[in-house]
Amino acid sequence: MASTAHHHRRIPVFDSIYAQAQQLEPLDIEASAMGIRQADGTFSPLPDAIQNILSSVLDSLVRGETIGLYKIPDELTSTSAAELLEISRPTLMKWVREGKINSFKIGSHNRFYRKDVLRLKEKRRQEQLQAFTTLRALDQESHIED
């Protein structure tokens, strides 16, 4: 039977690194193109998703925050899924009963597929963005009528 070894790498971040990161604060990291400069001098831009992760890490360093990166497992407990969705576990279980998100059982415990949780998280983000856009448009209309 083959076993899968899980490797964890811890990288200590000292105060001197936080101090150096704080010097980056005035930079517009979001607008920067991050990439790798090869030995021959060619520049290879990083994919957007990786740039977003690195931008978040730099932002956390600037703020002096603790940073933790982890892989989200394929199957999540109800507690982990609720945390990822930034909702309470009872709300998550209500959504299961309403059919808003799929779950499956292992014994008596509900589990969730990562893809389903991330899909719902993105859907909620889009709905919140749309609601904000609508609210902002209504606010601008009310100021025009004043």
UniProtKB/TrEMBL annotation:
Domain called Helix-turn-helix: residue spans: 76-125
GO molecular function: DNA binding
Domain of life: Bacteria
Name of the protein in question: Helix-turn-helix domain-containing protein
Organism: Corynebacterium rouxii
Lineage: Bacteria, Bacillati, Actinomycetota, Actinomycetes, Mycobacteriales
